[in-house]
């Protein structure tokens, strides 16, 4: 379902509480609905609209806000599965990721750790990007925290593509990676 970064582990022993640096990625997965067949090409979902809304409510808005990527993975037909062409090699992807991280370090921080001021500077939007964000907030109900997460993801997508600026196209892609949140807003 999604992933996010955790920056520290907080431990409350018998004495002084302590926070210890512990950068980690948190990943989660869930079925699309209670019966697990929503969107399946051959098997029909048996959930009612009420069931779907109740299932979507299991994950709270504040938790969704903290997940950078929320990707729905549809079921594939056997033809789609067997005829899929190989994607980018792991070695090529590794090279792009290392180059993107180098760009981020040159800016002084990895995108996940950008302060709000640095985020505004390195994710400055043109008018098309500004309209996309306004639409996500005004019509989609996206929170400020979710907007910041989407901007960080858009900055990373641009870095992976070797682009200096975050275009509206990269921002639109990042917003699409918040699919579960958007579906929950429609269901609720």
Q: How does this structure look, described?
A:
- The chain is an alpha+beta fold.
- It has one domain.
- Helix content is 48%, strand content 12%.
- It has nine helices and three strands.
- It has a three-stranded antiparallel beta sheet.
- Strand 1 and strand 2 form a beta hairpin.
- The longest helix is centred in the middle third of the chain and has 18 residues.
- The C terminus is likely disordered.
Key features of this structure:
188 residues
> Biggest sheet: strands, sense, closure?
3 strands, antiparallel
Taking pLDDT < 50 over at least 5 consecutive residues as the criterion, the unreliable ranges are: 184-188
Oligomer: single chain
Radius of gyration: 19 Å
Tally of domains: 1
Strand-pairing-aware structural class: alpha+beta
Report the strand count.
Answer: 3
Order of helices and strands: EEHHEHHHHHHH
Gross morphology: globular
Order of the strands making up the biggest sheet: 2-1-3
Distance between the termini: 18 Å
Mean pLDDT: 86
- Total number of helical segments? 9
Strand content: 5-15%
Helical proportion, percent range: 40-55%
Q: How do the helices and strands line up, and which of them pair or pack?
A:
Blueprint: E1 2-11, E2 18-28, H1 49-56, H2 61-65, E3 69-70, H3 78-82, H4 90-107, H5 116-122, H6 127-138, H7 144-160, H8 168-176, H9 179-187
Antiparallel strand pairs: 1-2, 1-3
What would you say about this model in short?
The chain has nine helices and three strands; from the N terminus they run ββααβααααααα. With 188 residues, it is α+β, with helices and mostly antiparallel strands.
């Amino acid at each position: 379902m999604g992933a996010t970064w955790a920056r520290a582990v907080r431990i409350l022993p018998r004495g002084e509480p302590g926070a210890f640096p512990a950068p980690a990625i948190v990943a989660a997965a869930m079925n699309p609905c209670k019966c697990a067949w929503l969107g399946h090409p051959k098997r029909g979902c048996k959930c009612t609209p009420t069931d779907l809304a109740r299932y979507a409510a299991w994950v709270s808005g504040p938790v969704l806000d903290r997940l950078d990527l929320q990707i729905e993975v549809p079921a594939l037909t056997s033809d789609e599965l067997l005829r899929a062409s190989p994607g980018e090699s792991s070695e090529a992807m590794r090279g792009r990721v290392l180059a993107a991280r180098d760009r981020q370090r040159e800016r002084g921080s990895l995108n996940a750790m950008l302060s709000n001021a640095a985020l505004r500077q390195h994710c400055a939007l043109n008018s098309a990007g500004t309209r996309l964000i306004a639409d996500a907030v005004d019509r989609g109900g996206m929170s400020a925290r979710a907007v910041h997460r989407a901007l960080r993801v858009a900055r990373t997508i641009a870095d992976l593509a070797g682009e200096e600026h975050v275009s509206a196209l990269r921002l639109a892609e990042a917003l699409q990676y918040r699919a579960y949140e958007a579906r929950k807003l429609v269901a609720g």
